[in-house]
Design a protein that fits this description.
Layout lengths: L3 E4 L3 H13 L3 E7 L6 H5 L2 E6 L10 H11 L3 E3 L9 H9 L3 E2 L4 H8 L1 H10 L7 E2 L6 H11 L3 E5 L8 E4 L5 H16 L4 E5 L4 E10 L5 E13 L2 E7 L6 H16 L5 E11 L4 E9 L6 H8 L3 H9 L16 E8 L1 E2 L5 E2 L2 E2 L2 E3 L15 E5 L6 E2 L6 E9 L2 H13 L2 E3 L5 H8 L2 H4 L7 H4 L1 H4 L7 H23 L19 E8 L2 E11 L1 H4 L9 E11 L13 E14 L4 E6 L2 E10 L2 E6 L2 E7 L15 E3 L4 E6 L6 E2 L4 E7 L2 E6 L4 E6 L6 E2 L4 E7 L2
Parallel strand pairs: 1-2, 1-4, 2-3, 4-5
Antiparallel strand pairs: 6-9, 7-8, 7-9, 10-11, 10-13, 11-12, 12-15, 13-14, 15-22, 16-17, 18-21, 19-23, 20-22, 24-25, 24-31, 25-26, 26-27, 27-28, 28-29, 29-30, 30-31, 32-39, 33-35, 33-38, 34-37, 35-36, 37-39
Helix pairs in contact: 4-5, 12-13
Length: 707
């Protein structure tokens, strides 16, 4: 076994590799960029060496610099993790040439399987079933379009050197092919430095099922069963589970055998994944080779959970020249496991990746990277801590939440509970969205295919699981509790004027709050507020405070053909008596509408984030004084939704545009985002050029709107 390895990666996977290495007594060396100086993976490794700038090309993609560091610190091997250089054949060869062990397959195996076209030819020769498509070297756009027309639509354009869902486009009709081909190539160059593509038939009602394989230097091969990764957005996986629902023993054996033959065809060594597209027919499921990922997969924990095998440990053992610890007959499936990828993104805005600070990051009770019979049923793999920044330079994934149980039904219940206990504040994230998915009829009943998210749109997007009254009361309660604590800390007098109890000598206490919820404005008014905690200290922390609450929705009327705003009218939406007990600044118990509700809440700027076991939502408690003197935003302006680079403008100054028309393409976190017109108008000014870097909120262009 090695005495020291260098981990040529960052974040969650670097922490994951370091944990197993530490358990085996192997010393670890981290490398880090400017953006990662204070990162978790730097802290958990035994040594950490500065690598370069924040952009991957200036740090984690600098293979020569990584090898030089490994030699300088006396490392014997390099673990590439996934992404970055993990499937770079030249880097694997350079490691070998420098006398270092690359913890992964040979450079020849990576080359053979890294090019999708070449791998298809190899698989055809090995007898592995293939889906119809063109995998050749002719990359002329018109020729590729002819091939797509011949195959029949829909087709899938895929970057030949791609992976991770990047460089993929579904083409529904011939007229869209050239434009989507250009977009696919741009993304492929950015992500992989290679714009060669292949074109395949897009299978109807397809499932994405993959097989975890392992090979050693002694000619032994095993598979560790299958994973279903069908639930995807932007061709990237959202939920993964093992074993795959509906796969019987015969199909499992057939897929496993095909996967091992695929690995054997290239003398594969180490951990790899053979991915299949499974076409579902009324009476059968047919599987076709899609690609082989020559590395450890993001979703490897579900295979670990059902097999009881630490795959990183096996990687280290095999790379050190030892045989596989088990044969196929020694492996068996135990229970069911599901993994949810928790990402910084906004599902309701096209899954736009988000950046920002993890203002709050609370996790359910869990284990971390522990593979043995005593492992907890809930596991979290992450590379961040509360207070860390999710930057625009790397992937948007925050953590992986993995659950394991005897049955799929029990695993689903555990996953829902664990997601309900996960609290993230500070940037958009998909935790609530994940709960919506697993509670859909399609997912819960294992009616799986890659179109599940689109099919269940009505149940997944723009959801508001909490009542307006619950959100409003929580926001007001948190504000009152915060003010009461601050005033009590400063108060020394015994008279009623020195206590935060809403005391009035000649009138009832009344106070108004301005709220914004779901882009609508509300006025909330409380009266007869009695803060029992402060007025009677003998009652202790279990005593209740109460107030009468009225919530009115603003209805702004405008005179016809006039821009003059008539006085706002209101509509009553809630009236009732409310009681509450604030245990601390974040935990509250509410009594309203005849029920008790336990809530947690955090405020970031003016937004109050409310969490309950039934879901989470947010409401804005407007600080009116903070907005005095602000100018309203210019009508027709368009701002970048996040830091990135301008790929192209689709319009020129003077062009007339319609609402929804593409205006610009921004690349961020290795993904292209199209900015569309919010309204009809005429392009007045372009404020950047293609290739320019933009910050979050930078105005990209201006539109003169039509009257």
């Amino acid at each position: 076994m090695f005495s020291k390895i260098l981990i040529a990666n960052r974040g969650e996977i670097a922490c994951r590799v370091a944990a197993t290495a530490k358990r085996l007594g192997v010393s670890t060396v981290a490398v880090y960029s400017d953006a990662d100086r204070e990162a978790k993976h730097v802290a958990v490794c035994d040594e950490a060496i500065y690598l370069g700038g924040s952009a991957p090309k200036d740090s984690y993609l600098k293979g020569d610099a990584i090898i030089a560091i490994a030699l300088d610190v006396g490392a014997q091997a390099i673990h590439p993790g996934y992404g970055f250089l993990s499937e770079n054949a030249d880097f694997a060869q350079a490691c070998q040439d420098a006398g270092l062990v690359f913890i992964g397959p040979s450079a020849d195996a990576i080359r053979a399987m890294g090019g999708k076209s070449e791998s298809k030819r190899l698989m055809e020769a090995a007898g592995v079933p293939l889906i119809p498509g063109y995998h050749g070297d002719n990359q002329d756009a018109d020729f590729l379009k002819q091939q797509a027309d011949s195959i029949g639509y829909p087709v899938l354009i895929k970057a030949s050197a791609g992976g991770g869902g990047k460089g993929m486009r579904i083409v529904e009709q011939s007229s869209e092919f050239i434009e989507l081909l250009e977009s696919c190539r741009r993304e492929a160059i950015t992500s992989f430095g290679n714009d060669q593509v292949l074109v395949e038939k897009y299978a109807l009602k397809p499932r994405h099922i993959e097989i975890q394989v392992f090979g050693d230097t002694h000619g032994n091969y095993v598979h560790l069963f299958e994973r279903d990764c069908s639930v995807q957005r932007r061709h990237q996986k959202v939920l993964e589970e093992a074993p795959a629902p509906g796969v019987d023993a015969a199909m499992r054996e057939a897929m496993g055998t095909a996967a091992i033959e695929a690995a054997r065809a290239v003398d594969y060594v180490g951990a790899g994944t053979v991915e299949f597209i499974v076409e579902q027919r009324e009476d059968s499921m047919n599987f076709y080779f899609m690609e082989m990922n020559t590395r450890l997969q993001v979703e490897h924990p579900v295979s670990e959970a059902i097999s009881g095998v630490d795959l990183v440990e096996w990687q280290l053992l095999v790379a050190a020249g030892q045989p596989l610890p088990k044969k196929q007959a020694d492996l068996a499936i135990n229970g069911h496991a599901i993994e949810a990828r928790i990402c910084a993104e906004n599902p309701d805005n096209g899954f736009l990746p988000a950046t920002g600070t993890l203002f709050t990051y609370q996790k359910p009770e869990h284990s971390t990277f522990v593979i043995n019979k005593n492992s907890a049923d809930v596991r979290i793999d992450d590379g961040v801590r509360e207070g860390d920044v999710i930057s625009p330079f790397y992937d948007s994934m925050i953590a992986k939440l993995i659950v394991h149980a005897p049955t799929r039904e029990q695993a689903l219940a555990k996953l829902d509970r664990a997601l309900a206990q996960t609290r993230i504040v500070g940037l958009p994230n998909n935790v609530a969205f994940l709960r919506y998915i697993i509670n859909t009829e399609s997912f819960s009943q294992a009616n799986l295919d890659t179109a599940l998210i689109e099919r269940e749109r009505d149940e997944l997007f723009d959801q508001h699981p909490l009542a307006l009254s619950t959100l409003a009361v929580t926001a007001i309660t948190q504000q009152l509790a915060s003010e009461a604590a601050a005033q009590t800390a400063k108060s020394t007098g015994a008279d009623p004027f020195s206590k935060p109890i809403g005391f009035r000598a000649f009138s009832d206490y009344t106070r108004s709050f301005s709220l914004v919820y779901d882009e609508k404005s509300y006025n909330a008014r409380i009266s007869n507020w009695h803060n029992a905690n402060c007025s009677d200290s003998k009652k202790g922390s279990d005593s209740l405070s109460s107030f009468a609450l009225v919530i009115e929705k603003e209805i702004a009327n405008t005179e016809e053909n006039s821009n003059i705003n008539i006085a706002a009218q209101t509509e009553m939406v809630y009236e009732g008596q409310v009681s509450y007990n604030s245990i601390d600044a974040y935990n509250h118990t509410l009594w309203l509408e005849g029920a008790r509700v336990n809530v947690q809440s955090w405020t970031n700027k003016e937004t109050v984030y409310v969490f309950t076991d039934n879901g989470r939502d947010e409401i804005t408690l407007v600080d009116i004084m903070a907005h005095v003197g602000e100018d309203s935003a210019a009508v027709g302006s368009l701002k970048s939704p996040m830091p990135g680079q301008v790929v192209a403008f689709k319009v020129a100054v003077g062009d007339t545009v319609k609402e929804g028309e593409p205006l610009a393409v921004i690349e961020a976190m290795k993904i292209e985002h199209t900015i569309t017109a919010p309204t009809d108008g005429v392009v007045a000014e372009l404020l950047f050029a293609a290739g320019d870097s933009v910050a979050d909120g930078d105005e990209l262009l201006r539109i003169d709107t039509e009257s």
